[in-house]
Known about the structure:
This protein has helices at about 10-20, 25-35, 60-75, 100-110, 130-175, 185-210, 210-220, 220-230, 235-250, 290-295, 320-330, 370-385, 420-425, 445-455; strands at about 75-85, 90-95, 115-125, 255-260, 265-270, 275-280, 285-290, 295-300, 305-315, 345-350, 355-365. The longest helix is centred in the N-terminal third of the chain and has 45 residues, at about 130-175. With about 475 residues, it is an alpha+beta fold. The strands form three sheets. A five-stranded antiparallel beta sheet has the order 7-6-5-4-8.
Amino acid sequence: MSRRPLPRMGAALALALLLTLAAPPALRGQQQAGPEPEPLSVEPSPTAPERVGVEKVSSDRAIDRRLTGILESTGWFEQVEVEVREGVVFLDGLTRSAERRDWAGALAGKTEDVVAVVNRVRVAERSPWDLTPAAAELQRLGRLTVQKLPAVGIGLLILIITGILAKLVAAGARRVLESRMKPLLRDVTARALSIPILILGVYLVLQVAGLTRLATTVLGGTGLFGLVAGIAFRDILENFLASILISMRNPFKLGDLVEVAGHLGVVQRVTSRGTVLMDPDGNHVQIPNATIYKSIIRNFTANPNRRESFEVGIGYENDSAAAQAVALEVLNGHPAVLKDPEALVLVDRLGAATVNLRVYFWYDGSAYNGPKVKSSLIRLVKRAFEGRGISMPDEAREIVFPDGVPVRMLEAAEPPAKKPRPEEAAVETGAVTTAAEGHLANEEGPLREQARRARMPEEGASLLEEKNPR
Length: 470
């Protein structure tokens, strides 16, 4: 048999046939079927499944039936209608939130053989009278409350235990410091020891309740709270700290006669806010402790010896030294004037018509009243000067004629002598004291008695101890 060579075109066809038979089956399928179209991508919901399977040979009717069954089974949608044409899904219906509508679109996009999704699901407008969200929130809070009841019970138990422990610590501190500190300082120290225990109890309660961040904030924010409280209640804290310093320094005691910030009175009570005085008019005066601590305090009771002075003028024709001796004799003979320190009679200044003498004397303030003693001494010095012929001219009306004034005497009958009345005779007797001067008695005793009987305007225990009775 003779062989003839194949034509050139036949050789090319044979080579192509051989290459086709040698190619893998997958590659041959791709060459025949062509590239498969990709479905449109839809943003998946976080809760949507990765893939929804249907029958192996998918059809529009199978996709419709599968999606309709899923959407109706959720109960989230009303009037559900699913239509599938050539792999394109059309969703219609009604739902109550945009999240559910997006979930339905993502679910359809994840279904096998779906090319695209047209999501026409509408979100129903909620009526303003719809109380369903509120009821759902109340149910949620109720369930949460029931779940938290054991933690709340344990927290209350911890709070009660810490409160009792704080009271025991404060009572023990007061008992230990009773004889070592003043009342106010003792109370402050006891409270300072009990406050950390209460803060620790609150921290533990918040930890048990699951509020860890809030517990850390409370524990770390006590310093900030103290700063804010210090700014907001600056005056109150200032008075409180001043009361502590007053109770420690003891510038006065209960019953002392003091003068503070222009107010004179007997100390009745010192509280954590202010000091109560009763003035000589019988009125209660409340002064803030901050003012007390920063002001000048004159204590008339701490040293019973007090000094008073008065001025008397004599004529230029009189002997100043003799007048000083007469006044000093009156002072030394007065029962209320102390011998030590000694009394003084000094020439103070030269006036227009008089030589002015300044008289200084000391007296016992716990027994005598200064203005009364002064009144008695002025009266007795005046009587002594008149008895010794020492003139006391008036600077406003005295006129001095250096060359004298000629006088012509007229004869006239002398007027009958005037008899002094009984009350005038009593004044001119030269007694040390008179009824008008009140027997020189000190008024602190009656003032303290009035303070004892009066209603106390400031509540609370006094921070100072009452001074020992004389």
